[in-house]
């Protein structure tokens, strides 16, 4: 049984068809790169896959069960979406990183945070930093740390390296590739065709709200 199964999925908003009749399956362990022009519907597709929005037509099944039947907060623990514009709330970084623990009624695990900070080259002093003062690339990495504190089954990444330099990009790519090797399924929107070839086993091209091609690489 596929992990995710999209069947004729459409998303229409205010009379505008943003996605039309999208069908594909995601198998456990896949690393899928999603490419396509700006405005083609890539982010909308990942927002549908994480149940942040619901299809206006068609169905999405997760492990054979219609997504609408899951409790959204439970589903979000299994399918994590890291958005294109990192959203950090409150005043400081710690509040953001404490959130995944508090929703699980667990104490803050400083050791786990330290592990991820060192993986993404973030000085530990950033824990108390004011979120207003962070650079775009720092926000992207903190947002990724928040997503990875508890490992999901499916990781949906929306251009998460767009504000990073080459070195930090490589670090994030290596980390995500290791997670995939450990069994986490990855769907990654990228504008970098080279990257989509390097790590992915499938490439989906979205154009004008439709899947133009699904290429299986290995
Ligand atoms: N909730 C919405 N209501 C109306 N229009 C929307 C909504 N969400 C997205 N759109 C429009 O749908 C189209 C697809 O948006 P989407 O963000 O999915 O594109 P994208 O492929 O991720 O683009 P980019 O590469 O620029 O991030 C765009 O024209 C966008 O303006
Ligand atoms: Mg987008």
Structure, explained:
With 218 residues, the chain is an alpha/beta fold. The protein has one domain (4-216): P-loop containing nucleotide triphosphate hydrolases (Rossmann fold), CATH 3.40.50. It contains seven helices and ten strands. The model has no long low-confidence stretch (mean pLDDT 95).
Helix/strand-derived category reads alpha/beta
CATH superfamily caption: P-loop containing nucleotide triphosphate hydrolases
> How far from one another are the termini?
20 Å
Q: Given the structure, what is the number of helices?
A: 7
CATH topology: Rossmann fold
Topology:
Blueprint: E1 4-13, E2 16-26, E3 31-35, H1 42-49, E4 57-62, E5 65-66, H2 72-78, E6 79-82, H3 93-103, H4 110-119, H5 136-148, E7 154-158, H6 166-181, E8 185-189, H7 193-199, E9 202-207, E10 210-216
Parallel strand pairs: 3-8, 3-9, 6-7, 7-8
Antiparallel strand pairs: 1-2, 1-4, 4-5, 9-10
Helix pairs in contact: 3-5
The protein binds adenosine-5'-triphosphate and magnesium ion (MG).
Adenosine-5'-triphosphate binds at residues 13-14, 16, 18, 36, 38-44, 84.
